[in-house]
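Following up on my earlier message about adenosine monophosphate. Here are the inputs again, as you asked, copied directly from the submission form:
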Amino acid sequence: LESIRLPRMMQDTALAACARGKKIALVPTMGALHEGHLSLVRAAKAENDIVVVSIFVNPAQFGPGEDFERYPRDLAGDKEKLEKEQVDMLFLPEAQAIYPEGFKSWLSVEGLSEKLCGAHRPGHFRGVATVVLKLLNIVAPARAYFGQKDYQQSLVISTLARDLNLPVEIVVRPTVREEDGLAISSRNIYLSNDERKAAPVLYRALSAGAEAIKNGSSKIEDVKKTIHQVLRAEPLVTEIQYASVYDPNTLDELAAIKSPPVLLAGAIKLSNIRLIDNLVLNDLK
Ligand code: AMP
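Thanks, got it. Here's what our run produced:
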């Protein structure tokens, strides 16, 4: 596993591989790698000549008071996992190299970035969009891999790739879950034992909403009530930031559930730990 720290060196290496006709895949991550990340790596490996994984805890996507400083970091463990998957290159830039003195160019995907998570994390998707555009320019992948776990993020990135004519295919892969349904996340290690036991409540709530839709509920109020009832039954849930049924293209809450696809999505706090999850229903029966 070759590690590259300098963006210029990564770009030279990538462009040389492109010139030899190699198809590069990029899997952008913030490290503390788990089975969700590795599922993206395996898909990338199967479909491309060279797999580049980036690990960069992007300061620009964390708000003041968020967990940037204490975000889990495990470079040795990450390298071991990537070697096992036979990843070709690890891109490990320093924040100074990504945002050097005088950095001024920020990318906003308007309309999508302010909704759902964006309403609770102002500036988050601007930080995400900017760093992903930079990573795509540096690594020059034919395909880049993202997880549905972060549905809104994948929509923001697909939209920016389309709007800016980026020569890359954005691939979105299914959410990998623990056996009890909890979506795997680097942040799950923040959970105490009791919180970990309670954490699948978000998946259970969204699943109950999906079940209600499949049983013929077309009223948004009914489905939302079902979701919120499950969440409120768990005493460790301290906040429901949003939880409802949305248009998967605009992220607007639906007025009525008429035709597929629909997005069920939620963000909650368990004590002080923020969890997100989502389900996309491609048919309503
Ligand atoms: P992160 O390191 O959390 O920024 O995630 C890096 C990439 O892995 C993003 O595209 C995430 O959506 C994706 N990812 C994170 N968790 C999962 C999961 N449980 N299943 C599938 N993809 C995931």
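One observation from looking it over: The mean pLDDT is 98. Hope that helps, and feel free to reply on this thread.
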